[in-house]
Amino acid sequence: xxxxxxxxxxxxxxxxxxAGLLVHxxxxxxxxTLANALTYxxxxxxxxxxxxxLEELAAVQSESNGHFTQTGDSETVVxxxxxxxxxxxxxxxxxxxxxxxxxxxxxxxxxxxxxxxRYLALISGMLGVESGSIEAPIGRDPDREPQWRVxxxxxxxxxxxxxxxxxxxxxxxxxxxxxxxxxxxxxxxxHIGHPIIGDKMHGRNQELESRLCLHASxxxxxxxxxxxxxxLTSPAPDxxxxxINQYQESP
Length: 251
What we know:
- This protein is an alpha+beta fold.
- 23% of the residues lie in helices and 31% in strands.
């Protein structure tokens, strides 16, 4: 599948994940994920050159626990190092490591919160303040749907927000997840009574929207090889922008 590449060098690649694409395979989904597409992209020269088939590459990849492995003919099979995740329904920027050192450094930076992440979200209702912070613990209750929710005993979670614009019945906001809990942005927006438009899991009466209006629009981090501060941005994709326009044009 085609990849929208924002930046790439020998250490890492930054791509824009489309909405609806699963990041990595699961027990029920083995093909058609972002990890599959990246594996092909990072090894396509030897696949296109006839030295590897996709099946052979998959077999070698599954036998290695690292982010790359050495083959019998001394060729290195590059495995994508997934440093962080995006929900299947969320689009936007992701950085992926191409070797073990980059994976180690970037993972440490994410743990220490040295990476800046910003999301654009269209939320229901008119937010009454210009900026603020949502602090509510998030946990998992396997006996309820959705399982991930704000609950006593959950792990601390914080989301900063800033209004970008307001239109009748909705607000476009920039969200910054200070912590990285599962579905945090969706849960926190719903918790304050302003679910993200298109969120069929945590929203209300939003079945008609074609996608979740949440997009990872800015990613900034120190390059794992030279420490350079990298800033990458991505505008809202066409489908999401079309929904935003519809709300702005509503009477």
